[in-house]
Each structure stands twice: as C-alpha cells, then as structure tokens.
Design a protein that fits this description.
The structure is a homodimer. By secondary structure, chain A is α/β, with parallel strands linked by helices. The first copy, chain A, is built from 24 helices and 22 strands. In chain A, helix 17 packs across helix 18 (590-599). The longest helix of chain A is centred in the N-terminal third of the chain and has 27 residues, at 239-265. Chains A, B: It holds the Pfam family XFP_C.
Chain lengths: 785, 785
C-alpha cells in the first residue's frame, strides 16, 4: 500500500470515528471550534460506541478495495449497535445528504446529524431502515450471515462484507449461519466475506470466541468450511501499522475470493471451495478513553455504550470528552465550512458503488415483478362442491414449478427439509433442483450445485436467507410446518418492524412481500402428535401493524392458487398462508375461488338453507380447510335432519376481513359485517386456530355477544384426523349440537338428533381407540345428497 | 471386551431393534410364533425407524459401561423420532413394566407395547413425558445439548450420554449448544458426552455434517472445544466388529472423562479441559431392508419413517417385513412366555442405575423445596403511595442474592448477558459469580470457574439449560429483555406441552416451575427503540393450557418480591413475570403488597373517589408498572380537576384473574368480577401489553361492552419514556380524556379540562422533539396532593 493510501485510510477512519462520537455526545459546537461546554453535550447520552471503531475501519478499507477493483459491494453490520458508525460513513461518502437533504455536508448538517441521533423524532441508535446502505436491522442479533447469504444468492457480481459481532456469534442462528457457504454457488451467486469482529466483550461479559485459544478458533472456522485470516490489534498499535496489516489481510481475502470465482466460472472446479474469512481482533471502544475515573475503559465491557457517562455532570469527564474528540484531529479532516476535506474522502467510491448507496441495500429499486403464469391452468376441476378430492399444496406445487421456470434468477423456495413433506414436490423438482454445495452422492435426488430450492434444517436460516433475498430485490416463499414456524417468531417480529419503519422512509422502494406457506398443520399431525400441534403463529402475526400483515386460510386447492397468485404480486407485506397437504374435498371452481378470494369471505349458498329476504336462524362460519369441511358436513346433517332451521354458511379466507375497518385496511365495514353475520342471530364459527383469535378480531362487532367459536383448544396427541377434531369439539357432530343448543323451539325431534349425535361422538372415540383408525361410517355423515 | 460381552451387547441390540420394528408394524403375533399375516400388521403405519438402530446401539453399550463403572447416567435422545427405541430399551430393562404394569414382560405385554405405539389413546411416536428415562421431548429439534448441560450442572456424579441427531445438528440452537462445555465445571458439575449420530439423511435431504470432509468435521469439533473420536460403520460390517469398535470408542471416551474429572477434582487443573465427544457414522435404517421395490432403502432417506410402507397391501412387502423381523432372531432373545432371556438383558444395570429408571429423568423425585428467606426483610419502605422511588428488579436482586446464599447447589440464574443490565446486579454478585470456564483475565469481574449465574448471549441456551436443570429436579430463573424472549417462543411452547402432558403421567413427580423475569420492557427502551419493543410474549403464553401458565405484572418492588416468592415455591407452572428496572414510584407497603398479590387484583381505595355503597361513575384499571403510574397520575388530575366524578381504581397483578373461572383456575367468578368492574359503568384499562389481550381475556364478562383498553399499539421509536406513552395514547392526559369522553353530564368545566389536556399532549410531544427530553413539568401532573 502506498503511504498516501494509508494517510487517506486513516483520515477516513478518524473522520468516521469523530462523527460517531459526535452523534453520541454533541448537540452543538460540532467541530470544537471553541472549547467544549456543558451545554454542547446532549442531555441524554444514548448510543453504543464499543463496536464502532472496528466497523469504521472495515468500512474505510472496503472503500479502498471497491475503488481499486471496481467491486459492487454491500456492507452488513452484524453488531447493530454500531448505528452511529454506519451513519457516519454514509455522511462521509455523500449518500446521507442525498437521502436527507437537510443533513448537509457542512457545520449545520453536522449539527443536525449529531442532534438527530438517538433523539426523539430523530433516528434510531442502531442500523435501521433509516440508515442508507443497510438491509440489516441492528436490534435483535444473530442474523447477519443469513442476510448476507440471502443477498449474495443470484448476485454473482456482488461482494458482501459481513461483519459478525462477537456477541452475536454466540447466538444459535449465527452459529449455524456459517454453514451458508455450503449453499452458495461460486458461479451463479456472489461472495460473502465474513469478518468476525472480536472486540472481546458484550454488555457485561467477555465474548466467548474471544476467550478460546486461537488454535480452537482457527479450527472452528476451518470446521465451518472457511480459511481464516487473523488480524489482531492492540490499543497501542500505531495507526500506520493497523492500516497496513488490515489492508493486506483484506486484499488477501479478496484475492482468494476472486481466484475461487475465476476457477469456478472457468468451469475448472467442481468441489466446494474453501472461502476465506477474516478475524479482526481489536479493543472494544478502540481509540476511546483508556481510563475513566481510574477504571480501564478502552478494551473492556465499560466501553460498550457511552464510555464517559457523566460528560454533562463532571468537569473532568467533559474535558476528557474534549480530549477524546480532539484526538481525531478534526481540523485536519474537515474544512472551515465543516465539509470533509478531499483527502478525508479520497477513498470513497462513486455513485452506486458507495456501499451506502448501493441499490442492493434498497432492493426495491432492483425488484422486477415476477412473470407469473395464469393460474387457471392449474385449477382443480370441481363439478360440484365436494365432488373432487385434491391435495392443495401439491396443486400449488405445480403452479410454483411454472413460476420457477419463468423466473429462473429472481425466485427461490426456502424450507427446512419439508418441501417434499409439504407436497410441493415432486412438481417443483421437475422444474429445478435443491442447491447444495456440499458433497453429492449418486444416491441423491434433485441435489445440484445450482437450483431454486434451498433446504436446510434451520428455520432461522430459511427465514434469514429469504429476508436477505427479498431485501435485495428478489422474490420468494418460505414453507414450513405450522407448529415450528414459532422458531422464527422473533425474526418475523423484526422483519415486520423493518417493513413498518421502511414505509416511513421515503427513499426506500417497495420490496416483495415475505410469503409463508404453513402446511402440515395442527389438524393433520397423525404421525407426530402434540408437539407438532400449534396454530398460534397467527396470534403473534396479528400483533404487528395492520399495514404489514395479511393472513389467509384458503380452504381448498383453487382458493390456495388464487391466494398465492395475489401474494406473489404483493409488496411490503408479510403474507401468512395456512394450507392443507392431505387429500381433501374441493369446494370451488376456479372462477368461484377467484371471486371468493377477492372478497376475502362470503356465503356458500349451496350449503345454507335460508330463504331470500329473511334472516337465517343461525350463521355458520368457518375458516380453514378442516374446519370448513367439518362445518359443511354439519350443514349436510342439518339439511337432512333439521331442514326447518334456516342456515347461512360463510367461509372466511382473508382473516383480516373480520376486523373493523379502522383496525385493518381489509376490515369489513360494520354494515357489511352486520349484513353477513346479522346483528342478533347466533353465529357458530369453526376456526383453524385458537378460538379466542376470532373473538379478538371481532370484539367490536355488533353481534359479538352471539358469537360462539370452536377451534384448537390445545388438546392433542398422536391420533387420527377425526379424533383430533373430536378432542377439540370442532367435529361436525358437535357443530350440529352447537346449533341445536342455540336455535330455540326445536322440539322432540331435535332432542333426539342431539342425543344421537352425542352418542355418535362417544362411539367414534371408542372406535378409534379400539381400532386405531376412524370409524369408516363417519364418511356417511358428509354432505349426504 | 470379552466374547460373552459382545454376544450380550448384540443380543440387547437385536432385541431393542426387534421391539422397535414391532412397535411400528405389529398389532398381533408379536414374536412371530406363526407366519406373519396381513391382519398382524397395523392399519396405520406410523413412526420413524431411520435413527433407531443407532440409538439402540448406544444404549446397549452405555449399559455395559454403567455396570462396569457403577455410573449414574442419563440418556438424551436428540433424534426424538427415535421414540420406539427409547421405549424398547425401557421395556427390556424392566422399567417400562414398573411404570406401566399392564405392559408386562411377556407376550401379552409385548402385544400391548406394540399396539399402543403411535396409536390413538396410546403413546406418542417420539420420546415424550410418557417415556421412562426421558427429559427430552422428541418433537422440535435443537435442544439436546442444552438440556444435557442443564442436567449436568451441579450433578458431579452424573454422566449424560447426549445423542445429537445430524438433522438437529443443523439448527441454530444446537450449533451453539456445543459451547456448553465452556460453562461446565469439571469439579462441581457432571459430564456430558455428546455423540453426534451421523446417519446421513434427514426427511428428504442429506445431513450437512455428513457431507463435509472428515477433516472439516474434526476441525469443527475441535473448534467447539472437543476431542472427537470417530467410529464409522457400513451396513455390511459384522456385528462383532461393530460392537468391538464402538465399545472401545465409548470406553476411551469415558476414560478421558474420568481422567479430566480426577485431575480437576484433585485440584491439579485450572485450564478448561478438552472433553471427548463421539462421532458415530452409521447407515440410516441400519439392519432394515436394504432395498424395497428395487430402490435402496437402508442407508438412504427412504428409511426415515416406515421403510416398508405397504406391508399391509403388498404380499411382497409383508414377506420382506417378516424376513426383516426374523433377521433379529427373536427366538434366541425371548423365552416361550415372551420375556427376554437372561443373556438378552444381562448387561442391564440394576435399579436406579438403569437409564430408564434414573431419578434424574424424573427430577421431581429429587426436587427439594428451596430454602427461601423471609422477603419482608427486602421490602421497600413506603410511607404513603408514591412517596418512595425504587428499582423493582434491583430490590429483587437483593432477595435473589439471599436465595442463592441459602441454596448453593440447587438454584441458578440464567440470562443472555443481561443480569446486570436488568439490575439484578450488583446484588447477586455479592453472593456469587458467573460460571465461566473459558479464559479469565485480570480485568474480568465476577467471573469464576463456579458460580450460580449463567450468562451466554443465546436465549436458546439459557432456556435449554434451565429446562434441563429443572427437569432434573432443581430450581431457577431466566431473566431477559422482554422483546427478545420471543426468541424462545417455540421452546416455551414445547416445555409447556411437556408440563401439560406430564401432568397426565402418574409416575412423573412435580418439578419446579419455569420462571421468567422479563425486564427492560417495552415502555423503557430509550436506548434501543422500536426493535426492542414487543410485549407480545404474553399473548403467546396464554395460548397454552391454563393448568400450566401464570402471568404476573407486579407494579412496584414490594409486589414483585411477593410475586417472586410465590413463583419460587410453585411447581409445574410456567410463571411469566414482567417488571421494571428503572427508578419508579412505589405504591404498597409489604403487607399491602402481600394481600394484593394473594388476591391477584384489587382496588386502590386511596386513589379512587367513589363513596361507600354507591357505584362509581367509572372504573379505572391498570396492569403493569408504567400503565399503573400513568393511571394513578390520571386519578390525581381527576381528583383535583374533576372531583365530582366518582372513580374506582383497580390494579391487576395476576393477569389470569381477568379470565372466567371456567377458563383458568385463577379466574374470578362472574359475581366477583361484576362486583369489582360493575356491570354497566365504563372501564378504562391501562395495560402493559397489546390492548386486545385484555379484550380476549374478558370477552365473556358482563361489562365487556363498556371496556376501553389502552396499551402498546406497535408505535415506537428511540424516544423518552413519557413520549412512548404519549405515542401509544397510554399517557395520564389521554386517560383523563378517556374518562371525560365516557362520563356524561360534565359541562363546560370538563370541556375546558379536556382541551387543556389535549393541548398539553401536543406541547409535551413538541417539547420532547425540541429538547430531547421530557418537559420537566410533567412531574407536576403526578399525584398532586
């Protein structure tokens, strides 16, 4: 490296560090053109300095190599607490001012930059949607590598610098995130350069990976399939030495990546390459106060947040803060107006090559609509309701296979080893393979070095990869067992918050929705039983902003097709779709399904017995495939045995229609709700999930007091499908009993029917216990006409 | 090993394999005393064979060494699908029949054993609470190592054989679970022997760790701090060779463990030992059908579940099944009555040394009540409501320090680097240290080789360790940031299901409750902002059985003390306690707090203005520290400015009191609820979490239509505490406005007050935006008397 480069690297580093400290502390006197006074210091000192200097060092050096090698690069800051660093770098390279014109590159802008940080009405203290160049929220930890790999898939020209914090490195998702390298194709995907940043401490504890022998650390990284390059710095190291050694290390890493890609792209390599990674050991709170009040700070956990906590209350701390700020020699870095001097920013790449400005970090700019086939072509023929049987997810699989064929570079399916189990296979494997860059044996089926299906037994990885893929402008779907999607509850929360906050950021372009397909659901766990039964993800999802979340429960194959076509066209949502994979009756033609799904809910006139112009005696509603099947069987029993009861039958596909207009944009108006559900007739509602969710969604509705919901009551075991609905009182017989209990004036005939159904329920359970299968005659109680 | 031992090992292995296959397939003719007929085969073939032979091999060999070395051992089967294997081993060693006397050790019992498996009314297909010897549910994957370490803590004489499945090994929690070895003290804790079971395949995909070069695998294990011993078997290996080699490997591993413990316990070692681990490579579906219908099955993913799926429908499969069963030579293993022959079970240890019978796997047998101090001694002096300030969790910390002193071997605190941040420190570190067996530096504080506080930045590890610790009969507490407890949503679900299922298993003794302390809660995230704001764990928790879950929102230090004393005495629950860590006003004396907590909710007569014998105009309720403070400030405003409005003020500590009696055992009767909340007066409810949870809990109550709830509406950012309540309309001013809007006949004075409060809200927001802190005068609007 030339001397000049080293000087420029150091200038950038000092400037970024200065601006970071300024954000944490200053509300005035931004460039110390006068002595620092108490009133220059913010009243509330918030933020995290500890990790920032390391992040800034990496950023500066990445800049140099982006310029030299004309790289397209993305920066992921795993230690999200490094927010001020990310912002400082974006301000230095000019992106910040382009995004936020009020934050100019002068003293006024610098003052704004400092004041807004971690302040009410300002910007968050972590990397966030507001941060140019970020696709990675710095709130919860653990997902940096998964996001990095997601970003790299199908971006062969992209290099992702992924800084992994040493706290984050202890989390489970990150610990398995390293294995992303077995799923990356060096020909058709980009490169991820993990940089494990060991600054040694978390909030109050040492970081584990900083406290194992170096030999163990090297083994660990080699075990993860990486070739580690270790660079260690002490607080006392000379800046020139720091830049020379770190610059060399980064150069070496990029050389190796280039060599791997060249070999692979020349067709010369079939084996999985061993990708480089960097370990950067540096003191926490590097370049900050060495000691405060007689206690060591730099290089300890005490530097995690605000190294000088009493800068406003103690003259000594105030002077120490001033010394600290002046140690970066700001006068050499900024001109009189407060703008960075040319040498300070000489290393910054231009235009879209600035990591803060790359469109990959604002993926909506790159997003192209999917080329979607006409889903009519995949419809199940339904001559009359219930006349055909089909596996809904298998039908969807055929449609998705065509989506994959038409979008060979922008759509991927993610799943934890359940794509086949959830019946999307075999169809999708006629169109593509599972991408897998570990060993392949002759025995293997549908494994290949490149493919559209990503399977790893880690829901965290699936979700993280998909998030990274979407945030960089592509499309995808995550299929999982319903119960185990709870594994990523917290990731869902963070992504929903990201979407919600992004909607307030004018320069962020819309990204494709995150689509869940939850199958192997609560009602069909014959194999697996109680541990695999949990429909509660829906309860979690509806806690998030109604601007973001959508929940669909298509009840047959054609409604699933119509729903998914809609989901794949949508942006900025999280779409949760629950669908069955077992053979089950089909209810709607494709045209009926489209109309029904566009309304989100509606009556099934062929199942009800109400007369035109008269209110029914009872409203029978259902959401979900199994509940609807039970409800429709119940209506069949009613039509045959109690035809004088006037019923209205409603199916709900779009759960959010149940909420009030003011609570959710999909919410039905009260007038429409009353028109469908009446204001005074009993409603029996058969629901896929926990029953109280329906109460929660409808508690403001006029007829709520007459609403009676059946659903999963946490009663489960390894048993037959019909026994499961029996156990939870969601079965056809109980639903008829519920009607008889609520419709007055029934007389003796109803009492007899009630008793008969009651006995049937007991017999059905006993039969199942004895024979290990459902009483075959139960099928006779299905739509008898 | 002697020839005889090898013969006995093989006999056990064949017997366990035979009994496993029998469970999956047979409903009659259990020992093939006649030709296998179609009707001998179950109608529904459910279960998972693939992993079972490996589990059985390990079990057999562990048996031998337990006998030889007089070990106390626990077996954790990470591949939970291996349920039939666990059951088979327990039947062979006699435990099964002791627990389930109807399942005798003869032909009748064997028939029952087979029929009950994965059958309605029978037992689950996975290892489960019903399985003797198991503390590890085989539903969700990823937690075997965390459970193993939790079991080993404070059990110096225990050896945990922990089988890690190769599917499970891909999950995040398991990938970080290996680091448990840095937290184990070889002197005061027991040993964990991880056995990574590479059988090569998951449901439909290869397992990652089976497809990396052996050198990488060895590096990975060394990087995790283990010394790996690899044993590999092919389907064609002779049984004698299998037993000899696996026996030698297991012996070597146990020798090394013994040496490590001896050295450490002699005081000779200060460095962290490198513990052994085993890698067992063996074919999936080992000993099963090699090929079915011309396709390879043994050694492939096709052996995952039922290798011969059509045994009832195809004569060829039926004959193949018979051949398979007979290949274990059952006639050599069982006598005429169906009981195991002496040589078959010669290796089984006796009594409690049987892994299926160890009391460590039925921890309630070992559990001793904690020695708890009188919490009066830790009370905050409260002369009048609001007169004192305190940090609730810091007060609890002083109490917990004493709990730790009194229970030096049976109580631990778990947390993800937040014990200090949540203010349990410094007090708890006066009583103990953080246990840490990685490198310790002079700089470190409160780190030691042994201690009661376990901190690792992985909520998964914290939860898994605590579960393992509780399930083996000890006590503990998990403290975490409220928002990030969602990381373990799915683990909570699984543990709650375990507790619920255990309650139905008569021989399972009660274990200590799993106690959460959630602090750094949604309302106090000034530092961290939106990503750290999520009170939704409560919504998830209340989905689980009301027999299991308890939710407490103590609103000051004394109510927190009283609550936690109760939690630490309870068994078989999950107690979720949300508490503040910031300085905030204290409301109740200790005696008042005890009475209040024993009722779970109650009026605060000093805050309300109702007259005896008359219904109030409005009921003001609150749950949580911040909402209660806001509500009490609102009552102060009302007392001063609208004293003619008769108010009743209620605080709710035990959230489950709101539910109906029939929905939760803590539920208030409707009469009591009506007495408190009236049947027709408006209720303004200020709630800590998402407001709809209160609606969900109360929708059956008479006065529900008049209930108006304020809570967290997913509006958040980095801002001041008061700005947060303003943003979500939970502030004192809005609460007064809510009252004025609902109490009729107020006249002009109320209109003026309403306008004044409205203006105040706008000004308060503007002040915060401008000054970065709350308007100081807001404090004047607090209980003005």
């Amino acid at each position: 490296m030339r001397e000049q480069q080293i000087r420029q690297l150091d200038a950038w580093w000092r400037a970024a560090n200065y601006l970071s400290v300024g954000q944490i502390y200053l509300r005035d006197n931004p460039l110390l053109r006068r002595e620092l006074a108490v009133d220059d210091v913010k009243p509330r000192l918030l933020g995290h300095f500890g990790t920032v200097p390391g992040l800034n060092l990496i950023y500066a050096h990445a800049n140099r190599l982006i310029r030299e090698r004309d790289l397209s690069a993305l920066y992921i800051a795993g230690p999200g607490h490094g927010g001020p660093g990310m912002v400082a770098n974006a301000w230095l390279d000019g992106t910040y001012t382009e995004r936020y014109p009020a934050v100019t590159r002068d003293l006024t802008g610098m003052t704004r930059l400092f004041r807004q940080f971690s302040a009410p009405g300002g910007i968050p203290s972590h990397a966030a949607p507001e941060t140019p160049g970020s696709i990675h929220e710095g709130g919860e930890l653990g997902y940096s590598l998964s996001h990095a790999y997601g970003a790299a898939f199908d971006n062969p020209d992209l290099t992702v610098f992924c800084v992994v914090g040493d706290g984050e490195a202890e989390t489970g998702p990150l610990a398995t995130g390293w294995h992303g390298n077995k799923f990356l194709n060096p020909v058709s995907d980009g490169a991820v350069l993990p940089i494990l940043h060991l600054n040694g401490w978390k909030i109050a504890n040492p970081a584990l990976l900083a406290r194992i022998p170096e030999e163990e650390l090297v083994n660990l990284m080699r075990g993860y399939g990486h070739d580690p390059i270790i660079v260690s710095f002490e607080a006392t190291d000379a800046a020139e030495d720091v830049h020379r050694r770190f610059g060399d290390a980064l150069e070496t890493a990029l050389d190796r990546i280039a060599a791997i890609q060249r070999t692979a792209r020349d067709g010369a390599a079939a084996d999985r390459p061993v990708w480089p990674m960097l370990v950067l050991r540096s003191p926490k709170g590097w370049t900050g106060p060495v000691e405060v009040d007689g206690l060591p700070v730099e290089g300890t956990w005490r530097a995690h947040q605000v190294p000088l906590p009493s800068a406003r209350d103690s003259e000594e701390h105030l002077r120490q803060l001033e010394d600290w700020l002046r140690s970066y020699r700001p006068d050499e870095l900024f001109d009189d107006s407060g703008a960075p001097l040319p040498d300070t920013v000489a290393l910054a790449p231009g235009g879209d090559h600035r990591m803060s400005a790359t469109p990959h970090a604002n993926g909506g700019l790159l997003r192209q609509d999917l080329d979607l086939p006409d889903f009519h072509g995949f419809a199940v023929e339904v001559e009359s309701p219930g006349a055909a049987d089909a596996q809904a997810t298998a039908v969807l699989g055929r449609y998705l296979a065509e989506v994959i064929r038409r979008n060979p570079r922008t759509f991927r399916l993610f799943g934890p080893d359940e794509t086949a189990s959830n019946r999307l296979a075999p169809a999708v494997y006629e169109a593509t393979d599972k991408q897998w860059n570990a060993q392949i044996l002759d025995l293997d089926e549908h494994l290949a070095r490149a493919g559209r299906v990503m399977e790893v037994l880690s829901e965290h990885q699936c979700q993280g990869w998909l998030e990274g893929y979407l945030l960089t402008g592509r499309h995808g779907l995550f299929n999982s067992y319903e119960a185990f999607i709870h594994i990523v509850d917290s990731m869902f929360n963070q992504h929903a918050k990201w979407l919600e906050a992004s909607a307030q950021v004018p320069w962020r372009a819309s990204i494709a929705s995150l689509n869940y397909l939850l199958s192997s659901h609560v009602w069909r766990q014959d194999h697996n039983g109680f541990t695999h039964q949990d429909p509660g993800f829906l309860d979690l999802v509806v806690n998030k902003s109604s601007d973001i979340v959508r929940v669909y429960l298509p009840f047959d194959a054609n409604t699933l097709l119509s729903t998914y076509d809609h989901c794949l066209r949508s942006v900025d949502y999280v779409n949760v779709v629950v669908a069955g994979k077992q053979d089950s009756p089909q209810w709607m033609t494709m045209d009926e399904a489209i109309l029904h799904c566009s309304r989100g809910l509606g009556t099934l006139p062929w199942a009800g017995t109400e007369s035109d112009g008269e209110e029914p005696d009872v409203v029978l509603a259902a959401a979900g495939d199994v509940p609807t099947e039970e409800m429709l069987a119940a209506t069949a029993i009613l039509r045959e045995r109690a035809p004088e009861i006037a019923t209205r039958v409603i199916n709900v596909v779009d759960l959010m229609r149940l909420q009030s207009e003011d609570a959710h944009p999909h919410g039905l108006s009260d007038a429409d709700f009353d028109g469908l559900f009446t204001t005074d007739r009993p409603i029996i509602f058969a629901f896929h999930g926990y029953p109280w969710l329906i109460h929660r969604l409808t508690y403001k509705r006029n007829n709520h007091a007459n609403l009676h919901v059946r659903g999963y009551k946490e009663k489960g075991t390894t048993t037959t499908p019909f026994d499961m609905v029996l156990l939870n009182d969601l079965d056809r017989f109980q639903l008829v009993i519920d009607v008889l209990d609520r419709v007055p004036g029934a007389g003796e005939r109803h009492a007899t029917l009630r008793q008969e159904l009651h006995d049937w329920r007991i017999e059905a359970r006993a039969y199942t216990r004895e024979h290990g299968e459902d009483e075959p005659a139960i099928a006779d109680w299905r739509w008898p006409e």
